[in-house]
Amino acid sequence: MFVELGLAAGSVYLYNYLNSSEERKFKNNFNEVMLKTGIKNKDEETFKIYKIETKSYGYVCYLKNTKGLSVEHLESKINILECNLNSIVQIEKATFRNYIKMYVVNKDLDKFMFEPVKCKSHQLYFGKDYKGQSYTIDLNKHPMLLIAGATGYGKSMLLACILTNLVYNSPKDVELYLTQLIKGEISSFADCGPVKMVAYNPTELMIAINKVRMKMEERSNLFKAHGIRNIQQWNSHFPNRRMKRVILVCEEMSELMELPVWEQIWKVVKAGRSVGVHLIGALQRTTATNLDTDVKSQMTRITFHQNSIIDSQNVINSNNAMKLKRGECIVCGNDGEIKIKVPYIDDDFVLLNKYVPEIRIPTKKEKQEILNVKKINNKIYSIEQPQIIDVEENQIKPTGKKRVRKGVISLEDIEDVNREG
């Protein structure tokens, strides 16, 4: 027993010794970098680490406030710090405290599988930050999102992650309008309850945009009539008439910018925020033409790996997107740049189907498309794609008319009178 206790105590001592040794090495390295960057006051003093905590992702360091220096001095050299410490560095100034907190991430986050994270309807789940914490974006603060990046680095996976988590958590609180003019994975969500429409061509896209625009106008008029500023206030004052979040998702937005419908989409971007209408747009190649200052100022930018310095700078005004690996992205918003890792999702979406069975996955059985049809004058019409089908009269079963209250004339009755007259 004494031998076992001795071994246990020795193991703990060795673990603490190794940790403290690594911490001392890191502190010395940091102090050396600080001196060489020239961050110092008139008394040749600089920031020093007085406390360090070892975490699974790296370290949390506490720096003493130094007279004559501010947190801005430290932030101005963050690129040098990251390069010399071979880490991701985040600076946080604690309010009313005499220290600065610095997060140092020097270990890659392990690959993790997608699983739903509890969120409200105005929160979009992206994955995990490099401290291992779930990361969400609040649509109240970031109402319009632009997702950019080279092919094969995770744009579609992020969209799938966002949509699955929304459908899983808030099926009755969101409405989704999806557009896919070129080949993509977004049509896999077509059967999900919150999805009101999937547009596959410019004509269908115009219909979807008009529906969204009309909803915006209706809500705007209601807000004016009741003295309401935004959707949060409306839902707070009218809990029995709660409004859903409306999200328009556009794959390959650069294609849409060349179509007349872009003007209508841009109206959604500019006026949708207060009434709870949002846009998520994906963009592969970023240029000064399709990503001008107006677009960048109106939308929160998320980028995956970019192949060139120019593409990276076009999105986030820095070269950092070139360093990203597959499944990693940078969120560039009001809080600066935040690096996120997207959860792993298989190409066939089998994992997503486990949580949301309506998500389509590959099958050997051919899916029968259900047509919405209507009989007019003994001929059958398809409502989605109008076409006349010749059917023998004796094969057509009479359709029963809807019962109406006494004294109420239906629109169909009026049309019949006009035809007979």
Automatic annotation (TrEMBL):
It holds the Pfam family FtsK_SpoIIIE. It comes from the Bacteria. GO terms for molecular function: ATP binding; DNA binding. ATP binds at residues 149-156. One of its GO terms (cellular component) is membrane. Keywords: ATP-binding, Nucleotide-binding. Residues 132-314 form the FtsK domain. This is FtsK domain-containing protein.
